[in-house]
User: What shape does this take?
Amino acid sequence: MRLLLVEDDNHVAAALSAVLARHGFDVTHARSGEEALQALVPEADGFGVVLLDLGLPDQDGYEVCGKIRKRTSTPVIMVTARSDVRSRIHGLNLGADDYVVKPYDTGELLARIHAVSRRSVQDDTAVSGEGVLRLGSVRIELPTRQVSVDGAVVQLTRKEFDLLALLAQRPGVVFRREQIISEVWRTSWEGTGRTLEVHVASLRSKLRMPALIETVRGVGYRLVTSTS
Assistant: This one.
């Protein structure tokens, strides 16, 4: 996932960018509100999330958030030392999707990034009003939990469906192993890693698309949209 980091402190930005890169993010750093807005011109389709610090040198972060929201629906997470409830409410009313207070735990920040990114579906995934995900020849019906390829129904177990649906909501985005285990199995990573690998292999086999789910070494898995 491409991520726009709006942070005027170069040391903070460098440290956070390094952490995000280790978790599969492609980070673009903007040092001011104007740089951030320029990065989002003419459109922000290339960014999955904007991390917006409110203490910017040229414009108030709230003002920047409002401008971002007018030109794109890309999820925005405000990152600030302002912890009072009124500030949080103001940010959310301006269109921010989440609000993280400094100092924060890196694991929590990563979880929040993934959470807001899943709420917006990429343009290369078509979602109907009936809750249907379409990725090339693959059709995933969320309400009925039915999957078909080229019109032929594929029988999946409950966990196989949950795993596929999770990856399909953000095609191209790398999901960390720990995150998948937490959301699909509702448990911790320890002792469950082999189970995840088995389910991925089973999905590749049942869908007859070995390249559909890509293993990102040392990080996790992502769904490859070019495979259909």
